[in-house]
Amino acid sequence: MQVKAESLRRSSFLFFQDVYKSYGSKVVLDDIDLAVAKGELVTVVGPSGCGKSTLLRLALGQELPSSGQVLIDGRPCGFADRSRGIVYQKYSLFPHLNVLDNVLLGPRLSCGFFERRRRRQEFEDEAMRYLRRMGLEEHSRKFPHELSGGMRQRVAIAQSLIMKPKILLMDEPFGALDPGTRENMQIFLLELWEELGTTIFFVTHDLEEAVFLGTRIIVLSQYYIDSRGEAARRGAKIVFDHALPKEAKSTAVKTAAAFGALIQQIRQEGFDPEHLRHAGKFNLSHPHSFQTLRPEEAGAG
Fold it and tell me: In this predicted structure, what is the pLDDT of residue 1?
């Protein structure tokens, strides 16, 4: 397993190994091993409080692991920088700026006054290209309060993409949208991913959304057992890692029997506190999945 981990460390774009995250005496993430290839659209689900957003913040560099390593493109993750874009559920838009100026904010702040003046038209042309791709060109002079929820979220995505991040991190980005708008945004994101090939790390509480969107689904859960004994302080582990189809799909797939069966399997293996698999028997079928259990965890279950 160590040979596989070393090979994945060299070839993966986002890489976690032996990652623990604690807050005081509370262990949130417990020995996380994860290798993500460039261009994957990874969805992450799990029970409430399992640490999904914590995992995302570690990839963003907003927090550091208590132990273990997190690598981006082969280098230590470090603190958040422009190589990582982020889209939250709450729109990261400034209400006093119009759509165009919100998208331009990143490029403008990333350079000095004189360069900003010299490249003003270049920046505006680029921002308009992104707004055109988002279907928002005619709304460029509107303010956030004049837009629908889906439109505001598309502006937030444009804000991130104009900085040309190597990875786009999304934390419940469609959670505040009504069902119809949410489904439209899912289709939009798939089309954008197919066009740009951006690596996307997408956290959601919605199992249907996760299975529909991802090329790979990760289930993080605190519902498992291992051989450390009842007194051990445990955090969440990756209990399920499964490959999904790589092409954008019609929403009709959501009614397919196999789609529903996979959701039921995920619900049982990651969300049911009565269904506790031993850590050595997790369903880690993805080809890039690996696991580095400590000896005290890996004894016979």
Answer: 64
Q: What would the two tokens of residue 194 be?
A: 């197919």
Q: Per the CATH hierarchy, to which homologous superfamily does domain 2-83+194-298 belong?
A: P-loop containing nucleotide triphosphate hydrolases (3.40.50.300)
Domain chopping of the chain, boundaries: 2-83+194-298
Euclidean distance between CA atoms 40 and 64, whole angstroms: 23
Q: Would you list the DSSP string of the chain?
A: -HHHHHHHHHH-SEEEEEEEEEETTEEEEEEEEEEE-TT-EEEEE-STTSSHHHHHHHHHTSS--SEEEEEETTEE--S--TTEEEEESS----TTS-HHHHHHHHHHHTS-HHHHHHTHHHHHHHHHHHHHHTT-GGGTTS-GGGS-HHHHHHHHHHHHHTT--SEEEEESTTTTS-HHHHHHHHHHHHHHHHHH--EEEEE-S-HHHHHHH-SEEEEEES--B-SS-TT----BEEEEEEE---S---GGGGGSHHHHHHHHHHHHHHH-TT---BGGG-EE-STT------HHHHS--
Residue position matching structure tokens 């189809």 = 245
pTM of the prediction?
0.92
Q: Give the pLDDT of residue 2.
A: 73
Strand partners, 32: 19
pLDDT band at 301 (very low <50, low <70, confident <90, very high): very low
Round to whole Å and give the CA distance between 69 and 58: 10
Strand partners, 172: none
Spatial distance between the Cα atoms of 22 and 29, rounded to a whole number of angstroms? 7
Which one-letter amino acid corresponds to residue 274?
A: E
